[in-house]
Amino acid sequence: MVDFVSVIINLIVSVIILSPVLWLVGRWRVGKDKAKFTDAIWIVVIGTIVGTIFGYFGLGLIGTIVMIIIWLALIKHFFDCGWLKALLIAILTVVVFIIIGIVLALLGFALLAII
Questions:
Q1: Spatial CB neighbours of 34, under 8 Å, sequence gap ≥ 6
Q2: Which domain holds residue 95?
Q3: How far apart are CA 95 and CA 101, in angstroms?
Q4: Distance in angstroms (rounded) separating the CA atoms of residues 39 and 43
């Protein structure tokens, strides 16, 4: 049975953390006319919900490949770009997200060292 509370929490956290990064990278790659913040929110919401459904059924490698294609299709549709640009946006979003995570972790360690 799917724990709906954890799904909702996952969805909210994903929207808060991932949407701004996706939106900024999308604006950088396709321009402000095509990459709206609400589009980034919809991409994350739909992608997270579909990912949760696929994760529930545990489809393994095939499910992962299908999920990547779905995320790329969502980026392609909402940001009105081609497949390669959608792939570039997805890769850059992951890279920026990782960099932000590293910087925040280093800031956290620095604050712990001060205290």
A1: 26, 79, 80, 81
A2: 4-114
A3: 10
A4: 6
> For 2-16, how does the pLDDT look when each residue is reduced to its tens digit (9 = 90+)?
678 888 888 898 899
Buried b (16+ CB within 10 A) or exposed e, 66-87: ebeeebbebbbebbebeeebbb
Residue pair 16/68 in contact (Cβ under 8 Å)? The answer is no
| pLDDT tens, residue by residue, 91-106 | 999 999 999 889 988 8
Tokens in use for 34? 């095509």
Core vs surface per residue 31-58: b (16+ CB within 10 A) or e: eeeebeeebbbbbbbbbbeebeebeeee
Cβ neighbours around 93 below 10 Å, total: 22
Query: pTM of the entire structure?
Result: 0.85
Instruction: Give the tokens for residue 110.
Output: 């620095």
Q: How many domains does the chain have?
A: 1
DSSP 8-state secondary structure symbol assigned to residue 13 = H
